[in-house]
Amino acid sequence: LDPQLWHACAGGMVQMPPVRSRVYYFPQGHAEHAHAGGAADLAAGARPLPPLVLCSVTGVRFLADPETDEVFAKIRLVPLAPGEVEFREPDEFGLGGDPADAREKLSSFAKTLTQSDANNGGGFSVPRYCAETIFPKLDYRADPPVQTVLAKDVHGEVWKFRHIYRGTPRRHLLTTGWSTFVNQKKLIAGDSIVFLRTEHGELCVGIRRAKRVSCGGMECMSGWNAPGYG
Amino acid sequence: LDPQLWHACAGGMVQMPPVRSRVYYFPQGHAEHAHAGGAADLAAGARPLPPLVLCSVTGVRFLADPETDEVFAKIRLVPLAPGEVEFREPDEFGLGGDPADAREKLSSFAKTLTQSDANNGGGFSVPRYCAETIFPKLDYRADPPVQTVLAKDVHGEVWKFRHIYRGTPRRHLLTTGWSTFVNQKKLIAGDSIVFLRTEHGELCVGIRRAKRVSCGGMECMSGWNAPGYG
DNA sequence: TTGTCGGCCGATCGCCGACAA
DNA sequence: TTGTCGGCGATCGGCCGACAA
Protein backbone atom coordinates (compact mmCIF):
# COMPACT_ATOMS: atom_id res chain seq x y z
CA LEU A 1 0.00 0.00 0.00
CA ASP A 2 1.36 3.37 -1.05
CA PRO A 3 2.39 5.38 2.08
CA GLN A 4 1.07 8.57 0.51
CA LEU A 5 -2.40 7.07 -0.01
CA TRP A 6 -2.24 5.56 3.45
CA HIS A 7 -1.51 8.95 5.04
CA ALA A 8 -4.19 10.62 2.97
CA CYS A 9 -6.74 8.11 4.27
CA ALA A 10 -5.51 8.27 7.84
CA GLY A 11 -5.76 12.04 7.88
CA GLY A 12 -3.45 14.83 8.96
CA MET A 13 -3.77 14.03 12.66
CA VAL A 14 -1.94 10.74 12.19
CA GLN A 15 1.85 10.81 12.26
CA MET A 16 3.93 7.66 12.08
CA PRO A 17 7.39 7.34 13.65
CA PRO A 18 10.06 6.58 11.05
CA VAL A 19 12.17 3.44 11.19
CA ARG A 20 15.15 3.64 13.61
CA SER A 21 13.49 6.40 15.61
CA ARG A 22 12.84 5.88 19.32
CA VAL A 23 9.46 5.92 20.96
CA TYR A 24 7.94 5.14 24.33
CA TYR A 25 5.68 2.08 24.45
CA PHE A 26 2.84 2.18 27.02
CA PRO A 27 1.88 -1.46 27.75
CA GLN A 28 -1.22 -0.68 29.79
CA GLY A 29 -2.59 1.78 27.28
CA HIS A 30 -2.00 -0.77 24.54
CA ALA A 31 -3.78 -3.49 26.52
CA GLU A 32 -6.76 -1.28 27.31
CA HIS A 33 -7.03 -0.25 23.67
CA ALA A 34 -6.68 -3.81 22.35
CA HIS A 35 -9.47 -5.38 24.39
CA ALA A 36 -11.27 -2.65 26.29
CA GLY A 37 -11.26 -3.46 30.01
CA GLY A 38 -9.18 -6.60 29.71
CA ALA A 39 -6.02 -5.05 31.10
CA ALA A 40 -6.22 -7.38 34.09
CA ASP A 41 -4.26 -9.96 32.10
CA LEU A 42 -1.13 -7.87 32.24
CA ALA A 43 -1.62 -6.72 35.82
CA ALA A 44 -1.91 -10.33 36.93
CA GLY A 45 1.57 -11.14 35.62
CA ALA A 46 4.20 -12.27 38.11
CA ARG A 47 6.53 -9.38 37.27
CA PRO A 48 4.75 -6.01 37.01
CA LEU A 49 5.49 -4.24 33.74
CA PRO A 50 6.93 -0.73 33.78
CA PRO A 51 4.45 1.98 32.77
CA LEU A 52 6.55 2.90 29.75
CA VAL A 53 9.31 1.23 27.78
CA LEU A 54 11.75 3.05 25.55
CA CYS A 55 11.88 1.23 22.21
CA SER A 56 13.44 1.49 18.82
CA VAL A 57 11.17 1.34 15.78
CA THR A 58 12.53 -1.41 13.56
CA GLY A 59 9.72 -1.62 11.04
CA VAL A 60 6.48 0.04 9.95
CA ARG A 61 3.97 -1.59 7.60
CA PHE A 62 1.13 0.42 6.07
CA LEU A 63 -1.94 -1.80 5.68
CA ALA A 64 -5.63 -1.58 4.86
CA ASP A 65 -8.51 -3.81 5.93
CA PRO A 66 -9.55 -5.94 2.92
CA GLU A 67 -13.23 -5.58 3.87
CA THR A 68 -13.67 -1.99 4.95
CA ASP A 69 -10.63 -0.31 3.33
CA GLU A 70 -9.86 1.21 6.71
CA VAL A 71 -6.13 1.82 7.10
CA PHE A 72 -3.95 0.74 9.97
CA ALA A 73 -0.25 0.08 10.59
CA LYS A 74 1.88 -2.63 12.13
CA ILE A 75 4.85 -1.18 14.00
CA ARG A 76 7.67 -3.42 15.18
CA LEU A 77 9.30 -2.23 18.41
CA VAL A 78 12.49 -3.50 20.08
CA PRO A 79 12.96 -2.46 23.73
CA LEU A 80 16.24 -0.71 24.45
CA ALA A 81 18.51 -1.63 27.38
CA PRO A 82 18.73 1.11 30.02
CA GLY A 83 22.30 1.86 28.98
CA GLU A 84 21.19 2.61 25.43
CA VAL A 85 18.95 5.40 26.59
CA GLU A 86 19.90 8.66 25.01
CA PHE A 87 17.69 11.55 24.13
CA ARG A 88 17.36 12.61 20.52
CA GLU A 89 15.00 15.09 19.04
CA PRO A 90 12.40 13.36 16.86
CA ASP A 91 12.93 16.13 14.31
CA GLU A 92 16.31 14.63 13.57
CA PHE A 93 14.40 11.91 11.80
CA GLY A 94 12.30 14.31 9.85
CA LEU A 95 9.12 13.55 11.79
CA GLY A 96 7.90 17.12 11.68
CA GLY A 97 9.56 18.46 8.58
CA ASP A 98 8.80 15.57 6.26
CA PRO A 99 9.11 17.02 2.77
CA ALA A 100 6.48 14.51 1.58
CA ASP A 101 4.09 16.19 3.98
CA ALA A 102 3.75 19.43 2.07
CA ARG A 103 3.57 17.63 -1.26
CA GLU A 104 0.82 15.36 0.04
CA LYS A 105 -1.25 18.29 1.23
CA LEU A 106 -1.02 19.78 -2.22
CA SER A 107 -2.14 16.70 -4.14
CA SER A 108 -4.78 15.08 -1.96
CA PHE A 109 -8.32 16.12 -1.15
CA ALA A 110 -10.90 14.75 1.27
CA LYS A 111 -14.65 15.38 1.25
CA THR A 112 -17.35 14.18 3.62
CA LEU A 113 -20.24 12.67 1.67
CA THR A 114 -23.50 14.60 1.76
CA GLN A 115 -26.91 12.95 1.62
CA SER A 116 -27.04 13.79 -2.07
CA ASP A 117 -23.65 12.19 -2.62
CA ALA A 118 -24.64 8.99 -0.82
CA ASN A 119 -28.20 8.72 -2.17
CA ASN A 120 -28.34 6.04 -4.77
CA GLY A 121 -30.38 8.46 -6.86
CA GLY A 122 -27.44 10.44 -8.11
CA GLY A 123 -23.80 11.24 -8.44
CA PHE A 124 -21.09 13.00 -6.53
CA SER A 125 -20.59 16.76 -6.34
CA VAL A 126 -16.87 17.32 -6.88
CA PRO A 127 -15.59 20.44 -5.14
CA ARG A 128 -14.01 22.70 -7.74
CA TYR A 129 -10.65 22.68 -5.96
CA CYS A 130 -10.52 18.89 -6.08
CA ALA A 131 -11.47 18.73 -9.74
CA GLU A 132 -8.93 21.31 -10.78
CA THR A 133 -5.94 20.25 -8.72
CA ILE A 134 -6.35 16.46 -8.30
CA PHE A 135 -8.28 15.20 -11.30
CA PRO A 136 -6.80 14.99 -14.79
CA LYS A 137 -7.15 18.18 -16.82
CA LEU A 138 -10.57 18.50 -18.42
CA ASP A 139 -11.00 19.82 -21.96
CA TYR A 140 -13.32 22.79 -21.39
CA ARG A 141 -13.77 23.38 -25.13
CA ALA A 142 -16.22 20.47 -25.30
CA ASP A 143 -19.88 21.10 -24.46
CA PRO A 144 -20.35 19.77 -21.96
CA PRO A 145 -16.80 18.94 -20.90
CA VAL A 146 -16.67 15.21 -20.06
CA GLN A 147 -13.96 12.68 -19.38
CA THR A 148 -13.50 9.22 -17.88
CA VAL A 149 -11.54 9.20 -14.66
CA LEU A 150 -9.75 6.11 -13.37
CA ALA A 151 -8.83 5.83 -9.69
CA LYS A 152 -7.02 3.06 -7.86
CA ASP A 153 -8.17 2.11 -4.33
CA VAL A 154 -6.02 0.86 -1.45
CA HIS A 155 -6.15 -2.68 -2.81
CA GLY A 156 -4.99 -1.60 -6.26
CA GLU A 157 -8.46 -2.11 -7.72
CA VAL A 158 -9.29 0.44 -10.43
CA TRP A 159 -12.62 2.31 -10.40
CA LYS A 160 -14.01 4.13 -13.40
CA PHE A 161 -16.03 7.33 -13.10
CA ARG A 162 -17.64 9.67 -15.59
CA HIS A 163 -16.51 13.19 -14.75
CA ILE A 164 -18.67 15.93 -16.23
CA TYR A 165 -18.75 19.73 -15.89
CA ARG A 166 -22.32 20.90 -16.41
CA GLY A 167 -25.41 22.60 -14.94
CA THR A 168 -26.16 26.22 -14.27
CA PRO A 169 -24.19 27.37 -12.55
CA ARG A 170 -21.51 25.00 -13.81
CA ARG A 171 -20.17 22.40 -11.39
CA HIS A 172 -18.07 19.26 -11.46
CA LEU A 173 -19.87 15.95 -11.00
CA LEU A 174 -19.06 12.25 -10.96
CA THR A 175 -22.01 10.38 -12.50
CA THR A 176 -21.74 6.95 -14.11
CA GLY A 177 -19.74 4.60 -11.95
CA TRP A 178 -20.26 6.54 -8.75
CA SER A 179 -23.26 4.63 -7.40
CA THR A 180 -21.49 1.33 -8.02
CA PHE A 181 -18.59 2.58 -5.95
CA VAL A 182 -20.91 3.74 -3.15
CA ASN A 183 -22.72 0.43 -3.05
CA GLN A 184 -19.63 -1.78 -3.22
CA LYS A 185 -17.85 0.19 -0.52
CA LYS A 186 -21.07 0.51 1.49
CA LEU A 187 -20.61 4.23 1.92
CA ILE A 188 -23.19 6.37 3.67
CA ALA A 189 -23.61 10.08 4.26
CA GLY A 190 -20.99 11.17 6.76
CA ASP A 191 -18.26 8.92 5.44
CA SER A 192 -15.41 10.66 3.66
CA ILE A 193 -13.75 10.05 0.35
CA VAL A 194 -10.12 10.90 -0.36
CA PHE A 195 -8.69 11.62 -3.79
CA LEU A 196 -4.95 11.61 -4.20
CA ARG A 197 -2.65 12.28 -7.12
CA THR A 198 0.67 10.50 -6.68
CA GLU A 199 3.96 11.92 -7.85
CA HIS A 200 3.64 9.67 -10.92
CA GLY A 201 0.43 11.48 -11.79
CA GLU A 202 -1.67 8.45 -10.88
CA LEU A 203 -5.09 9.05 -9.33
CA CYS A 204 -5.98 7.10 -6.18
CA VAL A 205 -9.14 6.94 -4.09
CA GLY A 206 -9.49 6.05 -0.42
CA ILE A 207 -12.25 6.18 2.12
CA ARG A 208 -12.50 7.22 5.73
CA ARG A 209 -15.57 5.86 7.50
CA ALA A 210 -17.48 7.91 10.02
CA LYS A 211 -17.86 6.51 13.51
CA ARG A 212 -21.13 4.59 13.52
CA VAL A 213 -23.55 4.82 16.41
CA SER A 214 -26.16 2.12 16.77
CA CYS A 215 -29.77 3.32 16.88
CA GLY A 216 -31.89 0.45 18.10
CA GLY A 217 -30.50 -2.11 15.73
CA MET A 218 -30.27 0.27 12.80
CA GLU A 219 -26.90 1.70 11.92
CA CYS A 220 -26.93 5.41 11.39
CA MET A 221 -24.77 8.46 11.71
CA SER A 222 -25.15 10.61 14.79
CA GLY A 223 -26.63 13.94 13.77
CA TRP A 224 -28.15 12.54 10.60
CA ASN A 225 -31.75 11.47 10.39
CA ALA A 226 -32.55 13.76 13.29
CA PRO A 227 -35.29 16.23 12.35
CA GLY A 228 -34.35 19.78 13.21
CA TYR A 229 -36.85 21.44 15.49
CA GLY A 230 -37.12 25.26 15.33
CA LEU B 1 -34.92 -27.80 13.02
CA ASP B 2 -38.01 -29.90 12.38
CA PRO B 3 -36.94 -33.50 11.57
CA GLN B 4 -39.69 -33.76 8.94
CA LEU B 5 -38.38 -30.71 7.07
CA TRP B 6 -34.84 -31.98 7.52
CA HIS B 7 -35.71 -35.33 5.93
CA ALA B 8 -37.62 -33.65 3.13
CA CYS B 9 -34.54 -31.58 2.30
CA ALA B 10 -32.14 -34.49 2.64
CA GLY B 11 -34.19 -36.62 0.30
CA GLY B 12 -35.53 -40.15 0.43
CA MET B 13 -32.08 -41.73 0.04
CA VAL B 14 -31.02 -40.46 3.45
CA GLN B 15 -31.92 -42.57 6.47
CA MET B 16 -30.77 -41.69 9.96
CA PRO B 17 -30.18 -44.28 12.68
CA PRO B 18 -32.43 -43.70 15.69
CA VAL B 19 -31.02 -43.03 19.15
CA ARG B 20 -29.99 -46.18 21.08
CA SER B 21 -29.59 -48.13 17.84
CA ARG B 22 -26.23 -49.72 17.01
CA VAL B 23 -24.14 -48.91 13.98
CA TYR B 24 -20.68 -49.67 12.64
CA TYR B 25 -18.27 -46.73 12.52
CA PHE B 26 -15.65 -46.79 9.74
CA PRO B 27 -12.75 -44.56 10.89
CA GLN B 28 -10.85 -44.61 7.61
CA GLY B 29 -13.90 -43.81 5.54
CA HIS B 30 -14.72 -40.96 7.91
CA ALA B 31 -11.19 -39.58 7.67
CA GLU B 32 -11.11 -39.78 3.88
CA HIS B 33 -14.48 -38.07 3.67
CA ALA B 34 -13.57 -35.35 6.19
CA HIS B 35 -10.39 -34.17 4.47
CA ALA B 36 -10.05 -35.95 1.17
CA GLY B 37 -6.73 -37.76 0.97
CA GLY B 38 -5.62 -36.82 4.46
CA ALA B 39 -6.18 -40.25 5.97
CA ALA B 40 -2.44 -40.56 6.59
CA ASP B 41 -2.94 -38.88 9.97
CA LEU B 42 -4.78 -41.87 11.31
CA ALA B 43 -2.54 -44.45 9.65
CA ALA B 44 0.50 -42.81 11.25
CA GLY B 45 -0.89 -43.36 14.75
CA ALA B 46 1.04 -45.59 17.12
CA ARG B 47 -1.84 -48.03 17.53
CA PRO B 48 -3.57 -48.91 14.25
CA LEU B 49 -7.33 -48.43 14.40
CA PRO B 50 -9.66 -51.31 13.60
CA PRO B 51 -11.42 -51.01 10.22
CA LEU B 52 -14.81 -50.86 11.88
CA VAL B 53 -16.07 -50.16 15.39
CA LEU B 54 -19.46 -51.20 16.71
CA CYS B 55 -21.05 -48.18 18.38
CA SER B 56 -24.24 -47.13 20.07
CA VAL B 57 -25.99 -43.99 18.78
CA THR B 58 -26.48 -41.75 21.80
CA GLY B 59 -27.66 -38.61 20.04
CA VAL B 60 -28.69 -37.23 16.66
CA ARG B 61 -29.00 -33.52 15.93
CA PHE B 62 -30.67 -32.29 12.74
CA LEU B 63 -28.95 -29.10 11.58
CA ALA B 64 -28.81 -26.77 8.61
CA ASP B 65 -25.99 -24.55 7.36
CA PRO B 66 -26.86 -20.93 8.21
CA GLU B 67 -25.40 -19.77 4.89
CA THR B 68 -26.51 -22.31 2.33
CA ASP B 69 -29.50 -23.95 4.09
CA GLU B 70 -27.92 -27.30 3.31
CA VAL B 71 -28.89 -29.86 5.92
CA PHE B 72 -26.53 -32.12 7.83
CA ALA B 73 -26.57 -34.05 11.10
CA LYS B 74 -24.35 -34.49 14.10
CA ILE B 75 -24.41 -38.07 15.39
CA ARG B 76 -22.89 -38.96 18.74
CA LEU B 77 -21.43 -42.46 18.86
CA VAL B 78 -20.18 -44.42 21.90
CA PRO B 79 -18.02 -47.47 21.11
CA LEU B 80 -19.25 -50.70 22.65
CA ALA B 81 -16.99 -53.09 24.54
CA PRO B 82 -16.53 -56.45 22.72
CA GLY B 83 -18.63 -58.19 25.37
CA GLU B 84 -21.57 -55.92 24.62
CA VAL B 85 -21.74 -57.07 21.03
CA GLU B 86 -25.10 -58.58 20.26
CA PHE B 87 -26.94 -58.57 17.00
CA ARG B 88 -30.29 -56.84 16.75
CA GLU B 89 -32.33 -56.17 13.68
CA PRO B 90 -32.39 -52.46 12.86
CA ASP B 91 -36.11 -52.80 12.19
CA GLU B 92 -36.60 -53.26 15.92
CA PHE B 93 -35.94 -49.54 16.14
CA GLY B 94 -38.37 -48.64 13.44
CA LEU B 95 -35.69 -47.67 10.93
CA GLY B 96 -37.56 -49.07 7.98
CA GLY B 97 -41.14 -48.94 9.12
CA ASP B 98 -41.14 -45.43 10.47
CA PRO B 99 -44.78 -44.35 10.41
CA ALA B 100 -43.67 -40.73 9.86
CA ASP B 101 -42.13 -41.92 6.61
CA ALA B 102 -45.39 -42.53 4.79
CA ARG B 103 -46.92 -39.34 6.15
CA GLU B 104 -43.91 -37.32 4.99
CA LYS B 105 -44.10 -38.72 1.48
CA LEU B 106 -47.71 -37.64 1.30
CA SER B 107 -47.19 -34.07 2.44
CA SER B 108 -43.87 -33.01 0.90
CA PHE B 109 -42.95 -32.23 -2.68
CA ALA B 110 -39.64 -31.49 -4.37
CA LYS B 111 -39.08 -29.87 -7.75
CA THR B 112 -35.87 -29.15 -9.62
CA LEU B 113 -35.80 -25.54 -10.78
CA THR B 114 -36.02 -25.01 -14.53
CA GLN B 115 -34.35 -22.11 -16.32
CA SER B 116 -37.68 -20.33 -16.32
CA ASP B 117 -38.03 -20.84 -12.58
CA ALA B 118 -34.55 -19.51 -11.85
CA ASN B 119 -34.56 -16.64 -14.37
CA ASN B 120 -35.04 -13.41 -12.55
CA GLY B 121 -37.53 -12.51 -15.26
CA GLY B 122 -40.36 -14.48 -13.79
CA GLY B 123 -42.02 -16.69 -11.26
CA PHE B 124 -42.19 -20.33 -10.36
CA SER B 125 -44.31 -22.93 -12.13
CA VAL B 126 -45.99 -24.91 -9.38
CA PRO B 127 -46.73 -28.50 -10.40
CA ARG B 128 -50.43 -29.11 -9.99
CA TYR B 129 -49.88 -31.96 -7.57
CA CYS B 130 -47.84 -29.73 -5.27
CA ALA B 131 -50.37 -26.91 -5.39
CA GLU B 132 -53.31 -29.17 -4.65
CA THR B 133 -51.82 -31.38 -1.94
CA ILE B 134 -49.24 -29.17 -0.19
CA PHE B 135 -50.37 -25.58 -0.56
CA PRO B 136 -53.35 -24.14 1.30
CA LYS B 137 -56.67 -24.62 -0.49
CA LEU B 138 -57.25 -22.01 -3.18
CA ASP B 139 -60.67 -20.43 -3.71
CA TYR B 140 -61.34 -21.30 -7.36
CA ARG B 141 -64.49 -19.14 -7.47
CA ALA B 142 -62.33 -16.00 -7.76
CA ASP B 143 -61.12 -14.93 -11.20
CA PRO B 144 -58.28 -15.39 -11.23
CA PRO B 145 -57.89 -17.44 -8.05
CA VAL B 146 -55.12 -15.81 -5.95
CA GLN B 147 -53.83 -16.18 -2.42
CA THR B 148 -50.81 -15.29 -0.33
CA VAL B 149 -48.77 -18.26 0.76
CA LEU B 150 -46.44 -18.17 3.77
CA ALA B 151 -43.65 -20.72 4.09
CA LYS B 152 -41.07 -21.15 6.85
CA ASP B 153 -37.51 -22.10 5.91
CA VAL B 154 -35.04 -24.24 7.89
CA HIS B 155 -34.07 -21.24 10.02
CA GLY B 156 -37.69 -20.45 10.89
CA GLU B 157 -37.65 -17.41 8.60
CA VAL B 158 -41.02 -16.84 6.90
CA TRP B 159 -41.22 -16.19 3.15
CA LYS B 160 -44.28 -14.71 1.46
CA PHE B 161 -45.35 -15.71 -2.04
CA ARG B 162 -48.23 -14.73 -4.28
CA HIS B 163 -49.86 -17.91 -5.49
CA ILE B 164 -52.05 -17.48 -8.58
CA TYR B 165 -53.92 -19.90 -10.84
CA ARG B 166 -54.11 -18.38 -14.30
CA GLY B 167 -53.17 -18.62 -17.98
CA THR B 168 -54.56 -20.74 -20.77
CA PRO B 169 -54.36 -23.53 -20.10
CA ARG B 170 -54.64 -22.78 -16.40
CA ARG B 171 -51.61 -23.44 -14.23
CA HIS B 172 -50.38 -22.66 -10.73
CA LEU B 173 -47.66 -20.03 -10.37
CA LEU B 174 -45.74 -18.29 -7.62
CA THR B 175 -45.13 -14.70 -8.69
CA THR B 176 -44.50 -11.82 -6.27
CA GLY B 177 -41.94 -12.81 -3.64
CA TRP B 178 -40.44 -15.61 -5.68
CA SER B 179 -37.54 -13.70 -7.23
CA THR B 180 -36.59 -12.31 -3.83
CA PHE B 181 -36.41 -15.87 -2.54
CA VAL B 182 -34.30 -17.00 -5.49
CA ASN B 183 -31.87 -14.13 -5.08
CA GLN B 184 -31.53 -14.37 -1.29
CA LYS B 185 -30.99 -18.12 -1.42
CA LYS B 186 -28.79 -17.79 -4.52
CA LEU B 187 -30.70 -20.51 -6.32
CA ILE B 188 -29.89 -21.45 -9.90
CA ALA B 189 -31.45 -23.78 -12.44
CA GLY B 190 -30.79 -27.33 -11.35
CA ASP B 191 -31.21 -26.66 -7.64
CA SER B 192 -34.30 -28.14 -6.05
CA ILE B 193 -36.96 -26.66 -3.84
CA VAL B 194 -38.90 -28.66 -1.30
CA PHE B 195 -42.36 -27.79 -0.02
CA LEU B 196 -43.61 -29.52 3.08
CA ARG B 197 -46.85 -29.38 4.99
CA THR B 198 -46.32 -30.36 8.64
CA GLU B 199 -48.87 -32.25 10.67
CA HIS B 200 -49.92 -28.92 12.17
CA GLY B 201 -50.84 -27.75 8.68
CA GLU B 202 -47.86 -25.37 8.56
CA LEU B 203 -46.14 -24.83 5.22
CA CYS B 204 -42.34 -25.10 5.11
CA VAL B 205 -39.82 -24.59 2.34
CA GLY B 206 -36.36 -26.09 1.98
CA ILE B 207 -33.75 -26.22 -0.73
CA ARG B 208 -31.47 -28.89 -2.09
CA ARG B 209 -28.53 -27.53 -4.06
CA ALA B 210 -27.26 -29.25 -7.16
CA LYS B 211 -23.63 -30.34 -7.25
CA ARG B 212 -21.72 -27.49 -8.83
CA VAL B 213 -19.04 -28.11 -11.42
CA SER B 214 -16.56 -25.34 -12.08
CA CYS B 215 -16.32 -24.22 -15.72
CA GLY B 216 -13.20 -22.11 -16.07
CA GLY B 217 -13.89 -19.87 -13.13
CA MET B 218 -17.62 -19.65 -13.79
CA GLU B 219 -19.92 -21.77 -11.68
CA CYS B 220 -22.47 -23.62 -13.68
CA MET B 221 -24.50 -26.78 -13.68
CA SER B 222 -23.28 -29.71 -15.72
CA GLY B 223 -25.67 -30.30 -18.58
CA TRP B 224 -27.03 -26.76 -18.47
CA ASN B 225 -25.75 -24.02 -20.74
CA ALA B 226 -24.72 -26.65 -23.24
CA PRO B 227 -26.32 -25.97 -26.62
CA GLY B 228 -28.01 -29.04 -28.06
CA TYR B 229 -26.71 -29.97 -31.47
CA GLY B 230 -29.05 -31.90 -33.77
C1' DT C 1 -19.67 27.40 -4.96
C1' DT C 2 -22.44 23.36 -4.08
C1' DG C 3 -26.48 20.74 -1.58
C1' DT C 4 -31.07 19.33 -2.57
C1' DC C 5 -35.00 18.81 -5.28
C1' DG C 6 -38.37 17.52 -9.03
C1' DG C 7 -38.55 16.21 -13.80
C1' DC C 8 -37.79 12.95 -17.02
C1' DC C 9 -36.04 9.27 -19.81
C1' DG C 10 -34.33 4.75 -20.46
C1' DA C 11 -33.42 0.13 -18.43
C1' DT C 12 -34.89 -3.39 -15.87
C1' DC C 13 -38.22 -6.12 -13.33
C1' DG C 14 -41.68 -8.96 -13.30
C1' DC C 15 -46.67 -10.28 -14.58
C1' DC C 16 -49.21 -11.96 -18.44
C1' DG C 17 -51.16 -15.29 -22.08
C1' DA C 18 -49.64 -17.79 -26.34
C1' DC C 19 -47.86 -21.77 -27.79
C1' DA C 20 -45.69 -26.13 -28.01
C1' DA C 21 -43.39 -30.07 -26.00
C1' DT D 1 -49.54 -30.58 -17.70
C1' DT D 2 -45.86 -27.24 -17.76
C1' DG D 3 -41.41 -25.06 -19.91
C1' DT D 4 -40.20 -21.16 -22.64
C1' DC D 5 -41.03 -17.09 -25.09
C1' DG D 6 -42.38 -12.23 -26.49
C1' DG D 7 -45.16 -8.46 -25.02
C1' DC D 8 -45.85 -4.82 -22.11
C1' DG D 9 -46.89 -2.05 -18.09
C1' DA D 10 -44.93 -0.51 -13.65
C1' DT D 11 -41.11 0.56 -11.18
C1' DC D 12 -36.53 2.12 -10.43
C1' DG D 13 -31.98 4.00 -11.40
C1' DG D 14 -29.76 7.67 -12.53
C1' DC D 15 -28.80 12.04 -15.44
C1' DC D 16 -30.38 16.68 -15.84
C1' DG D 17 -30.99 21.85 -14.73
C1' DA D 18 -33.45 24.91 -11.34
C1' DC D 19 -32.90 27.08 -7.31
C1' DA D 20 -31.30 28.50 -2.94
C1' DA D 21 -28.13 28.36 0.90
From TrEMBL, chains A, B:
GO biological process: auxin-activated signaling pathway; cell division; pattern specification process; regulation of DNA-templated transcription; root cap development
Superkingdom, taxonomy of origin: Eukaryota
Compartment annotation: Nucleus
Keyword terms of this UniProt record: Auxin signaling pathway, DNA-binding, Nucleus, Transcription, Transcription regulation
Primary residence: nucleus
GO MF term list: DNA binding
One GO cellular component, as annotated: nucleus
Segments forming domain TF-B3: 109-211
Record's keyword annotation contains Transmembrane helix: no
Protein family (similarity comment): Belongs to the ARF family.
Assembly and binders: Homodimers and heterodimers.
Function: Auxin response factors (ARFs) are transcriptional factors that bind specifically to the DNA sequence 5'-TGTCTC-3' found in the auxin-responsive promoter elements (AuxREs).
Name by which UniProt lists this protein: Auxin response factor
Native source species: Miscanthus lutarioriparius
